[in-house]
Amino acid sequence: MMKILFVCLGNICRSPAAEATFRQLCQQQGTEQRFTWDSAGTAAYHIGKAPDKRMCAAAKARGMAMDDLRARQVKVSDFYEYDMIMAMDKSNMANLLSMRPVDSSADVKLMLDYIDSGQAEVPDPYYGDEDGFYEVLDLLDTACRNLHNKYC
Ligand code: 4NP
Known about the structure:
5 helices
């Protein structure tokens, strides 16, 4: 069983989209027993909130539901609970590394380590236009597929 935590800043755009993408992939492939997954934000701004409406609308247009998810903040116990913690960008990665306990068992990685495009980060769509949300979904679709196939 591989336990994966997807992390961004607010846990209302990128990481819940990653969680929903990975969940849908496991449901489609019948691999739900091989993984557990969740998502979280490094910041506390949106704790308890549903994902951003623009992210949900883009996901829905692609046939993916994510409005059931609720934001939470990363906690120290996540570094013992999860095998892999996937940061959406380098700033998330730096924040995660600064709070990681020395004896943590989790691997902290950049999400786009699992993509060949040369692009290192899933761009933050929060202050951008609608296209940015679709770009996030495109990147996550490829990265989640590669991550999923590597570990199942
Ligand atoms: P996320 O996007 O990190 O992909 O969830 C953001 C959500 C909220 C904010 C920034 C980015 N914010 O500044 O409130």
